[in-house]
Design a protein that fits this description.
Elements (H helix, E strand, L loop, with lengths): L3 H14 L7 H23 L2 H6 L11 E5 L8 E4 L1 E4 L10 E3 L7 E8 L10 E11 L7 E4 L13 E10 L21 E2 L1 H8 L3 E11 L3 H10 L28 H7 L3 H15 L22 H12 L8
């Protein structure tokens, strides 16, 4: 006896073999969120210390999904830079405010906050507020009350990755945000100091956190522009004084070491810097901007020896002593 399920399975098998099977990714993603996705997000946020640095000992489990994306800085590009839960975006990819979408009822009200618990130069116990929109009708963020204009992320040079956290709150009623209102031309760090803990404690009877997303970002050249032309101040930079690296006495016949990597450890730093500089000058032109591929590791390596391929791979990723390339 052939059942309906058997027929369906055979039909799916036939489509898969002939590469005509269409997988409903949106449905699969929704099922994943409803089954284990929100718990997964909670675990990731806990791992990255999002709850601890924003809410102290409190936490919440997301019940909605925010679709957040930044448009690519290249006006001729159709690419989007999405925000998930810990992915990396460069500051130059987050210059303009993102597009935020989420499912909601027409008569509902929402609050959206973007802040970072890292990098407040004036008060290390507070965050830097980058965006705040309140009384959002439905999911139309552009029609909400703009409490704080969008400010591009500016992770400080030498401080590694900073976390930038989007939190969506469900409002029970219309909320007066005049206490948190920033002026449109607010260009001081002190004006962007913010505490999610105090913000929620003050409004906990009116708002409830219901979704969280975040990305990580580290310094690039666009941060300099933010400090000089937006914040109107000198750009701070941090350097770590690394202890001198100890090397054992060089051996004539080292074992279990790639010969090129072994020899590079004992080369003079000036020679390495000179090699990197010469390689960089080959790629620069006084008449054209520097072209840096977005995904350098996807291109096929040249047909050379294994150690030359390894060197080329490090060059593309700007890793090791090639980091200044």
């Amino acid at each position: 006896m052939v059942t309906k399920s058997d027929v369906e399975v055979k039909a799916l098998e036939h489509q898969a073999r002939h590469r005509t099977l269409k997988v409903p990714l949106d449905e699969i993603q929704n099922d994943w969120y409803n089954e284990i996705g929100f718990e997964h997000i909670h675990t990731v946020c806990k791992h990255y210390g999002i709850y601890k640095d924003l809410y102290g000992d409190a936490f919440f489990i997301s019940r909605k999904v925010m679709k957040i994306s930044y448009e690519d800085i290249d006006e001729h590009s159709d690419y989007l830079n999405p925000v998930y839960h810990g992915n990396r975006l460069m500051p130059s990819e987050t210059v303009e405010e993102p597009v935020v979408d989420f499912d909601s009822e027409e008569d509902s009200l929402w609050t959206l906050v973007l802040s970072t618990p890292d990098g407040n130069l004036l008060d290390t116990d507070k965050e830097v507020l980058h965006w705040l929109v309140g009384n959002i009708p439905g999911n139309e963020v552009g029609k909400g009350d703009l409490v704080c204009n969008y400010l591009q992320p500016f992770p400080l040079r030498g401080t590694g990755d900073h976390r930038y956290v989007f939190v969506l709150y469900k409002q029970d009623r219309q909320v007066d945000f005049s206490k948190y209102q920033r002026t449109k031309d607010c260009k001081s760090l002190s004006g962007h100091s913010f505490s999610t803990y105090d913000f929620y404690r003050d409004l906990q009877d009116d708002i409830t956190p219901i979704a969280v997303s975040f990305f990580q970002s580290h310094w690039d050249d666009s941060v300099t522009n933010v400090f000089h032309n937006v914040l109107g101040m000198k750009e701070p930079a941090f350097e770590y004084d690394f202890p001198r690296h100890w090397l054992p006495k060089q051996k004539l016949y080292p074992h279990k070491d790639s010969f090129n990597l072994y020899l590079d450890r004992y080369r003079d730093k000036k020679d390495l810097a000179e090699q990197v500089l010469k390689e960089r000058l080959k790629k620069l032109s006084p008449f054209e901007p520097e072209k840096i591929p977005k995904y350098p590791a996807i291109y096929k390596l040249p047909n050379k020896t294994s150690w030359e391929q390894t060197q080329e791979f490090y060059k593309r990723l700007r890793s090791g002593f090639w980091r200044d390339l």
